Description:
The protein is of the alpha/beta class. The chain is built from seven helices and six strands. α2 (17-31) packs across α3, α3 packs parallel to α4 (74-89) and α5 packs parallel to α6 (145-156).
Amino acid sequence: MIVVGTGHRPDKIGSHKGQICQEIARRLEVLQPNLVITGMAQGFDQWLCEVALLRGTRVLAAVPFPAQADMWPLDAQVLYHQLLRRIQHQGGEIVFVSHENPVSHKEASQLLRNRNNWMVTRALAAPPPEEKVLLACFNGDLSGGTINCIRYAHGKGLPVQPFDPYTLRSRHPRTLEMI
């Protein structure tokens, strides 16, 4: 089982890290993945990474570009680099989807989208009978990287398991057809 993760940054999901990490742990316990693919953004991506590493699950970090964390607060940069070291130490993999850093906000947004698409494509490339799923911490916001990743995965046929970051309940699959 391969789990690809997408979700919001802390500013869009509030201070619910503990609850969300418990929900991630519960869902990974059910899914029993042998690989978790994460984009390593602040918030859900890193929380998924942390929980997977604690479980001993192999993690593939899909880093959109080398300077991804350079503009983050110092404590966020430290956590990011600690997680990358732990991924390597535990036999995971770090892939730079682009080796070029963006020169504009527009270019950065495109590289983040390319990273999301790469994660979905990478999971779908695994040969059968490997099962795959996109685990999405989704607050219903119809703009931004999380919804773009959900739409791309849904369009490519990757099953999507969205859950609400506030209630932790699964979002109904019909919701995906409306977006």
